[in-house]
Amino acid sequence: MKIIGQFNQGFILCSFLNHRIIIDQHAADEIKNYEKLKKELNLKKQYLIQPIEIKLDELDLLIINDNLELFDKNGYVVKNNKLITLPVYKGIDFLYKDFVDFVEDVKNGLELSNKLNEIIKSKACRMSIMIGQKLSHKEMSSVVYDLSLLDKPWWCPHGRPVCRVL
């Protein structure tokens, strides 16, 4: 892909074969940062002084017990239907309510809690190249190259398309 230049300090114009492609510089950098933050996710576990008895229905308890490894990965250690730990991420504490919400997330097929996902999306957004930021040719090339390394580079975590064929 050949870099043509930057348009309106927000978009990278490229050519590929006979096509012109426009890349949203913020969305492209944001999806890269989002995937990086998810990959490097380092949740800490805060042990509770007093374990919390999990008061949920039988189906929810079954889901928890069938997914103990997933709950552990998200910072929730469960033993004998008691919550032993809660996650802490970058100084943000999670509560029992967040655990209950994560049970619903798991029931909906998610592997990362909605709360944690929103935190990561927000952090990825704030650390990304912004609209209005002038980029050098080298910086534009880097943004385009980084997209080629991603599994799913088509949409930013907030749902904006990363690129379009003109």
TrEMBL record:
What is the superkingdom listed in this entry's lineage?
Answer: Eukaryota
The alphabetized list of GO BP terms reads: mismatch repair
Which GO CC terms are listed, alphabetically? MutLalpha complex
Q: Which residues form the signal peptide?
A: none
Residue ranges annotated for the MutL C-terminal dimerisation domain, each copy included? 3-135
Gene Ontology molecular function terms on file: ATP binding; ATP hydrolysis activity; ATP-dependent DNA damage sensor activity
Entry-linked InterPro entries: MutL/Mlh/Pms-like (IPR038973), MutL_C (IPR014790), MutL_C_dimsub (IPR042120), MutL_C_regsub (IPR042121), MutL_C_sf (IPR037198)
What's this protein's name? DNA mismatch repair
The scientific name of the source species is Tubulinosema ratisbonensis
Q: In the record, what lineage is assigned to the organism producing the protein?
A: Eukaryota, Fungi, Fungi incertae sedis, Microsporidia, Tubulinosematoidea
